Each structure stands twice: as C-alpha cells, then as structure tokens.
Amino acid sequence: MSRRTIKVDTLARVEGEGALDLTVRDGQVTRAHLRIYEPPRFFEAFLRGRDFREAPDITSRICGICPIAYIMGACRAMEQICDITLDPQLEALRRLVYCGEWIESHALHVHLLHLPDFLGCQDVVEVAKSHPEAVRRGLRLKKLGNELIRVVGGREVHPVNLKVGGFYRLPDVERLEALVPELERAVDEAAATVSFLAGLDFPDYEADYEYLALRHPERYAIELGDLRTSAGVDLPVTSYDELLQEEHVRHSTALHSRLHHGGLAHLGPLARYNVNHDQLTPRARAAAEEVGLGPVCRNPFKSILARMVEIVLAFEEALRIVQSYVPPAAPAAEVHPRAGTGFGATEAPRGVCYHRYTTDARGVIEDAKIVAPTSVNQKIIEQDLTGVAQAHLDLSDDDLRWRCEQTIRNYDPCISCSAHFLDLHIDRG
Amino acid sequence: MARQRKPKLAVWKFASCDGCQLTLLDCEDELLDIAGEVDLAYFPEATRAVSPGPYDLSLVEGSVTTPHDAERIQKVRRASKALVTIGACATAGGIQALRNFADVEEFTRVVYARPDYISTLETSTAIADHVRVDFELRGCPIDKRQLLEVIDAFLRRRRPNIPRYSVCEECKRRGNVCVMVAHGTACLGPVTHAGCGALCPSCNRGCYGCFGPAESPNAASLSRQLAALGTDADTLRRLYRNFNAGAEAFREESVRHEP
Q: What's the pTM value of the predicted model, to 2 decimals?
C-alpha cells in the first residue's frame, strides 16, 4: 500500500492560526483536514452578564479585519430586541462604512494574500517586483476603503463611532464630500483590476456548491437581508439555527456547520455573486461581463474575481451614498433595555455572520451565539481540498502543498474569527 | 564596499484578533518601503517565506492562553534580539482575560459541545508575565503612527518616543469640550494611556480605555467622580473590565467594585 503525507504546519497569508493535513493512500485522498488551533477566546461565555450596549465593541474584538461585521450584527440583534428601526440616512451610513470594510478586507486579500499564489510569489513584496503598478493600485484601493471607515467610524481597526441605535456622532459632511473624486477614480481603478485579474491562470476545478447568502429585496445585500440559498431556500434570519447546525470536531477549535438536510453551505463573495447576480451595480456588472464571468460561477479559484467585482460594487455604492446623503436629525435612535431574543446577520467580507442574543428586562445579556463565516466554510474547504488534491496528485509534494494552500485561501479564511476556529500536513502513505 | 545586512523582522501571533499585525499591513503608503529596509523574516499573515532566526526585532501580538503557547513564547524570546509587544492582548491579556475573573471550565462548556477537545489555560496573560519584554506598545488596536515610530526606533537603536500621559492631554490639545464635565458622560480618559488621539471624546462618547492605564493613574479618584455622576458599581466594574481588564491598575479598580 502506498501512502503519501503532505503537511503545512503554519498556513501563511491567512488571518489566524491553522494547519493542513492531507493523506493519500493508493492514489486516493483519504483525509483532508483543515486543522484550526487558534486558541479559543470564549466570547460567547464572557458576553453573559454584560450590558446589551457593550456587545458591539466587545464582539468587534473577535476580528481585526472585519470588526464592522461584528459591530453591526450585534447592533441588529439588539435593535430587534428593543424594537427600534433606524432613520434611512443612518442605515445608509451603516452601508457606507460597511462598504469601506468590504473594500479594505477584499483589497487586502486580493492583492496581499491571494494574488501571490497565482503568480508563484511568496508574498506581495515579491509581486511588487514584477507587477509594481498593480500592487500600488491595490494598496491605493485598500487605503481608500480604510479612509471610508475612518471618516464614518473613527478608526479603521475597531472603529469607535458605531453603536446600538446608530452612531455617536454624524460624520463631517465636508470630509464625506471630499471623498467623491477619489471614489470616482477608484471605481475605474477597481474595474481595471478586474480585467487584470481575469488574465491570471485559474486551476480547472468546479464543484456543485449550495451557495448561501443574504438577499435584500432592493439591493445587493451587505448590511441587511434574508437567508437565501442557490437551491431555493428562502428564510428569515430568525430561522438561521434551523437552517444551519453546529458540531464540534476534534481537529478544530472552530465549530463546524451543516445545512439542515446534511449538506454543506458555501459562504462568501462567490456565494453572494451567484445568489445576487441580478442586483450587481452597473459598473460591477459591466466589469464581470467584460471578463466573461457569467451569472453562475462554480470555480472556487475565481473567487478572487468575485471579490474584485464586489470591490467595484462597494465603491459604486459608497459613491451613491455619499452623493445622496442628507444628515438626519439625530446620530442615533434612542434605545431602552428590553427582555427578549434578537437575531442579527450581515454579509461580512467572508460571508454571512450570525449573532443571536437573549437579554433580560435590564438589558443584561443572558445568552449569546455568534457564528463566523469561516467556521461554516471549513467543511467546504475540506471538500475542495479533497477534490483539488485528487485532481493534482501528479504534482510534486511542494507544488501540491502550495496548490492546497491556494485552495484554502480561495475562502479568505479568517481563523481568528472562527475560533470558536489552520497548519497543512499531507500524508501520502 | 560590502552592503549591510538588512535587519530581520519577525511578527508572531498568540491569542488575538489579528488587528494589531493588520495595522502593519494597513500602512499602505509605507509598506513597500518597510519591506525595502527590513527582511520580513517571519510574518505568516503576509508571507509564505520563512527565514531562520535570530531576529533583530520581534513584534508579538496576542496573549498566552494555552500550555503550548506558554512554551512557544520562550522560544520566540530566545530567537529575538529585541522583543516588542503590540496591543492590549500582548501587554495586558486582552478581552480574553475576562476568563481570569471566571471559571474557565464553565466558559468552555458554554462555547464547546466537547470541552474534552479543548486545551486551554485558566488565565489569559500578558507576554511580560512569561518573558522579558523590551517595549510594550499599547492599544486595542495599536496606532499606526506609533507602530512605525517603534519599528524605526528599534532598528536605529534609540528609545521610542511614545508619551505615557493620559488621553485627557490629547483631548485638550484637540480642543474638545470635555464630555464628562459638559455632558456627564462616563469617560476613562483621565486614567487611560494616550495614543489614539482622543478618538472617542472626539465622537462625543466617553473613552472606553482601549489603550489601558496611563502612567500613575488615579482610578479610585476617577471612580468617585463617576459615581457622583450617577455611575453605579456594576457599570464601574464593567468599565474597567474590558480589553485591558488584566492590566494591574484596571484589574484592581474593577475588583473594588465587585458586589
């Protein structure tokens, strides 16, 4: 019996700590484990006993890359408990700051974390030697995403200006307006980046995924929406726990998730692109069409294109919001504690991020559940690893290891988030 | 003339949110220049390439929460000429140090269906509790400018110019109206380490202490003032028991307001 083992002990260019174990016996991949050893941090436990208004700032510390996803999920859930709705302009500001997070997080992943794989480079510094203009453009886009977050949220990592009910302070209109020319230029630069990325060599691999994304009646869902899958499931966020069930496996400090029928859900940019293709903004749609990216895409390596199309969309949306912004009367709705259970789900850069809280009449949190998108994607990543490795067993150990890493990075896994949530060990027998 | 060897920079992660090392990647204007000046010898979040130590400067993010990490930090220290901690997790244990006030077994049961799969310590502790630290950079998250200052200082073998006074000084300098005096808003600015540029008061909210205690903070005095403004003991305890709950001055003050 032949046995081949491939291992990666510390996965690079991902956020957080993980590893990979792959075992091949007699030409068959028999095990593909994404091991997540990121130390557990117990957010759901220490949220108990805290005031409901503290949840956004505390949960933002789950992830330094997508703090707004946590802030906003917690806000939504608490606002449902308190039975308040926000002024449409406050909702627009939330979408604006969330666009900033999509841009910052996606531009980081596209240029610094994922692109080096396609060019055979170790890192962005090496990419900058052969493609200096592409890297500088990527960094400019990323910087502008961060600038959006700063103007609305106060700072890029763990913004301070968002709260249950809205904002502490309305952003300066002059600072918002000053962004317009930069945003206009960024739409063009992001669209040009889609064309650049479409010229990369994409490994030939497709899978029949069930995509899960939020769906909003009017616009490409970011900060709000219902649960929708490519198989036709359409449920309110309050039904999340029925749709997805969590399980605890030995090789991961991130809980795994399965759909109610036992299948796996694929979350993130590719899922959103497939579920909400009809709602793409004009330039984002044009950029996708120009490179032949149709309404259905089942190649996970092309997630880098979906991510970039979403950057175009986020810049267009940011521009639209800034240009139509009329400051509301107050920076926030008044909130008063109430007993109840609230549900909040938003589209974090990596996919649906879910919060559920129960509070007592004084607003003290009695129970908290948070599901990060990467924890849901773990099983899909393992399924892809099996498929991709099986199709590329002819590669040398080093090349196969790298291809497996690239497969994992298709999902932009945020391991810090998911530990409740990797190293590659390939065992070829 | 022989070209001088580039200094080796390493970035290590322990229990954390990645936000502080992301701050380095958020230096969009400086990133490529930094990469020109130093050898990114170990920085898994940014590169697959790994060069062996010793490292001239190690930046350490995150706190120690597992037996494995308690051993790993010793190895990091041995491989590092200078070791700088970045952020509240590495300098004070971070938000996950809230476990230090609770029963960690119960915490594990709340989050995990199979607690027997989880290996964790009872406490989340700062890096300085385990090894010698050459400089501690504060903040949850750290400030980008301060990070660049610290890297520059260590590479040039000078002391970093990082003031240790309170947020109040930064707030006054910005010309903000005091949120506590004018609006009665509870604010940790008087006892909190500067560095953020008084962000929260500039947004009309009270400082929530994410940079940890300033030099010689008088937290007891601040608590008396906050109590006079109507802050109850429960709220006072929670104010100090946040991202820097493990920092001694904040820990002590939070304990004083336990029921």
A: 0.95
